[in-house]
Design a protein that fits this description.
Blueprint (H helix, E strand, L loop, with lengths): L1 H17 L3 H12 L4 H7 L9 H37 L18 H15 L3 E2 L5 E3 H4 L11 H4 L9 E3 L5 H8 L5 E10 L11 E11 L4 H16 L5 E8 L2 E10 L16 E10 L1 H6 L8 E8 H8 L7 H4 L2 H4 L3
Parallel strand pairs: 1-4
Antiparallel strand pairs: 2-3, 4-5, 5-9, 6-7, 7-8, 8-9
The chain binds 3,4-dihydroxyphenylalanine.
Length: 339
């Protein structure tokens, strides 16, 4: 029995010394010290040992067990340490490597232009309001004096959800919504996205942005409209800017006009930018049609007002001298960073 014990012990220590992985140590523990392990089975043979010898043999088995356990523990610590060293060696941090760059975003030219327009009008006491992009036909057309069958609808063909709901083709419906709320006087601008069934090219997109303006009060005249837009143009494009009102037609204003600004590139002499004319068209405007006021429950004998609509992309393209609208929608950071 003693010999057997010696043999088991030696064998176990040899195996421990030779093992190079934690799992192997575990296997060794099971095969020697486990419930069915060699040392445990040896103990079962104790009944054949004479009673005098038993304590001694028992002591020897326990010593062997303690020894094997101790060695297993040592080997385990050594292996763990080795693994850690290995890991540290593999994961060296090179502090001289350049740090990962934090790419900062950039405000879009549309946003910069919009904030500029908002700043100017807020400075004149206007409020900034918003309206829904999915709009009723009634607000987008009917209450703006564009009944079914009116030719103005052809110019603003858009995307229909059903017969009475569409993607708004202009921000003008926000005028109707604001007037219907019944709070007077009104001095507001309404920026937002609009939609039309246009093909994409350098100057068109099925989705773009407008900024609507509306002023309703007692005694508002065309002179107020002219003064306001002149002030806006000078602030937006420079104090030298001249403004020209050309008669035009919009169903919801009477009289109506389109506004040109003197080319800020050539000062009005004529260049590639203004296509030789010296003028650049920037917006549509007019005095709110009495019928529109009536449809929005405002008495045209008591109140009058003006309205205007600016294309935001147009302003951004002009201000930053961008010659293709598509660049505004591609969101290439190299492009955006220039503004
Ligand atoms: N909604 C017009 C358009 O999209 C622009 C416009 C013209 C708005 C005249 C106005 C206005 O408020 O008075 O073509």
């Amino acid at each position: 029995m003693k010999e057997q014990l010696e043999k088991i012990k030696e064998e176990a220590l040899k195996q421990i010394a030779a093992s190079d992985a934690l799992e192997k140590l575990n296997d060794i523990r099971v095969s020697y010290l486990g419930k069915k392990g060699q040392l445990t089975s040896l103990l079962k043979g104790m009944k054949d040992v004479s009673p005098e010898e038993r304590p001694k043999v028992g002591q020897m088995v326990n010593d062997a067990r303690a020894l094997i356990e101790g060695r297993l523990e040592e080997a385990k610590t050594a292996l763990a340490q080795k693994a850690r060293e290995e890991q540290l060696r593999k994961e060296v941090i090179d502090v001289t490597l350049p740090a990962k760059r934090q790419e900062e975003g950039h405000r879009h030219p549309n946003t910069i232009a919009l904030e500029e327009v908002e700043r100017i009008f807020i400075g004149m006491g206007y409020e900034v309001v918003e309206g829904p992009e999915v709009e009723y036909d009634e607000y987008n057309f009917e209450k703006l004096n564009i009944p079914k069958g009116h030719p103005a609808r052809d110019e603003q063909d858009t995307f229909y959800i059903n017969d009475s709901i569409l993607l708004r083709s202009q921000t003008s419906p926000v005028q109707v919504r604001t007037m219907e709320q019944g709070k007077l006087p009104i001095r507001m601008i309404a920026p937002g996205r609009v939609f039309r069934s246009d093909e994409v090219d350098a100057t068109h997109s099925p989705s773009f942005h407008q900024i609507e303006g509306l002023v309703i009060d007692k005694g508002i005249t065309f002179a107020d409209l002219k003064g306001t837009l002149e002030e806006f143009a000078k602030e937006m494009f420079g104090t030298e800017t001249k403004v020209k009102f050309r008669p035009h037609h919009f169903p919801f204003t009477e009289p109506s006009a389109e506004v040109d600004v003197s080319c800020f590139k050539c000062g009005g002499k004529g260049c590639r930018f203004c296509k030789g004319s010296g003028w650049i068209e920037i917006l549509g405007c007019g005095m709110v049609h009495p019928h529109v006021l009536e449809m929005c429950n405002i008495d045209p004998d008591e109140y009058s007002g003006f309205a205007f609509g600016v294309g935001l992309e147009r302003i951004a393209l002009l201000k930053y001298e961008i010659d293709d609208m598509r660049l505004l929608y591609e969101n290439d950071i190299r492009f955006l960073k220039q503004f």
